[in-house]
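Deliverable D5.2: sample structural annotation.
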Amino acid sequence: MTFEKFVFYVFALITVYAAFRVITVRNPVHAVLHLVLAFFSSAGIWLLAEAEFLGITLVLVYVGAVMVLFLFVVMMLDVNLAPLREGFVRYLPVGGAIGGLMILEMSLILASRHFAAAKALPPHGPHYSNTRELGALLYTDYAYPFEIAAFILLVAIVAAIALTLRRRPDARRQQVGEQVRVRRQDRVRLVAMAAESRSAGPAEEEGS
């Protein structure tokens, strides 16, 4: 066994263990941390496959941004885990069926001729750029699917904002349009007052 295969098996075992702990651990914060560990080990596997851009993107985007946001939300929310565990047995057959379907799909992928051809690819030279090859393939052969995926993500973002936007009657909001349209006459009023003479008191007379 070569050193590269040994490192691959180490990363693969860590990934499987971390993914298993994500769905079995009781504390949601620990689940998020195990998911971060799974992303790190998956990035190592991408680096072994000479996909440096995907590995670095997985660390920077998912671990550095998405998972930090997930961890912040989980730690800020006081999640009551008791109601979540009540329906575990009821949804176990559905989860088992989905897991079996995923195992079947992975088996079909591993047994296909395309996966065997990918394993037979020779190592690339020092001047090989994974980023250039990925960009050339993404913006030529898969340009339309890439644009469709971007449009779907944009619609999902707008839908998420629309679902979370709630109108509360007691909430105070800044009306920018009304502030821009305001005039001086609406806010400032000049009042003319007649001057009155004040007689000097006893203390002022003694001081003079």
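Annotation notes: The chain has a mean pLDDT of 80. The CA atoms of residues 85 and 148 lie 37 Å apart.
The annotation will be released with the project's public dataset once the embargo ends.
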